[in-house]
Amino acid sequence: MWNVPADTTIEFPFVNPNYRGKPYCIVFLQATNLVKRSAMGLLRLDLCRDTSIGWEDKNKHPVEPIFVPRPGGTEEDDGVVLSNVFDSADNTTALYIWDARNLEVVTVVETPLPSPLLSTDSGSRVSIRMPKIRQIK
Questions:
Q1: Among 42, 59, 62, 90, which is most exposed with the fewest C-beta within 10 angstroms?
Q2: Percent above pLDDT 70 for the chain
Q3: How far is residue 14's CA from residue 65's CA, in Å, rounded to a whole number?
Q4: Using CA atoms, how far apart are residues 10 and 14, in angstroms rounded to an integer?
Q5: How far apart are CA 115 and CA 126, in angstroms?
Q6: According to the model, what pLDDT value does residue 44 have?
Q7: 34 DSSP 8-state letter
Q8: Helical (H) or strand (E) element with 99
Q9: Is 70 exceeded by the pLDDT of residue 3?
């Protein structure tokens, strides 16, 4: 069965949008440890194989994960997972991008915000001046 400790809650399920309304196996969730309130992470459940992969990092608190399929991808988990992650050690928020197959961090995007997005700020929106993005050919 899935490796979810008894003292952990999971919420904010997200599946590949190409599988909405269809049979699916992979679901991404936010996980919170009820005993260690500072412990939060992401969980990837494979409902068809009864397996799970987790991600957590000390003082890091991800909010609702979003799966983005790779254009042209053929597998259900071929893409990336995005989430704002609040760092309680330095009171900042960054956008984390994970490989959806193994929840390994691909990149972290740090953008100055007027105030940090806390892990409880579900669906929060802020206005920021986006940095210029240079296209690389």
A1: 90
A2: 71
A3: 7
A4: 11
A5: 9
A6: 93
A7: S
A8: strand 92-99
A9: no
d(CA 40, CA 136): 35
Q: Please name the amino acid found at residue 87.
A: D
Helix (H) or strand (E) holding 82: strand 79-87
CA–CA separation, 20 and 1 (whole Å)? 24
Count CA within 13 A, CB hemisphere, residue 51.
Answer: 5
Under 8 Å between Cβ of 8 and 34: yes
- Residue 137 confidence (pLDDT): 39
Query: Quick check: 78 and 128 in contact, CB under 8 A?
Result: no
Residue 69 has φ and ψ, to the nearest 5°, of: -70, 145
Helix (H, G, I), strand (E, B), or coil: what is residue 17? helix
Q: Which of 80, 106, 4 is nearest to 47 (CA)?
A: 4
- The per-residue pLDDT for 23 is 95
Cα–Cα separations (whole angstroms), residue 91 to 13, 69, 117: 26, 30, 9
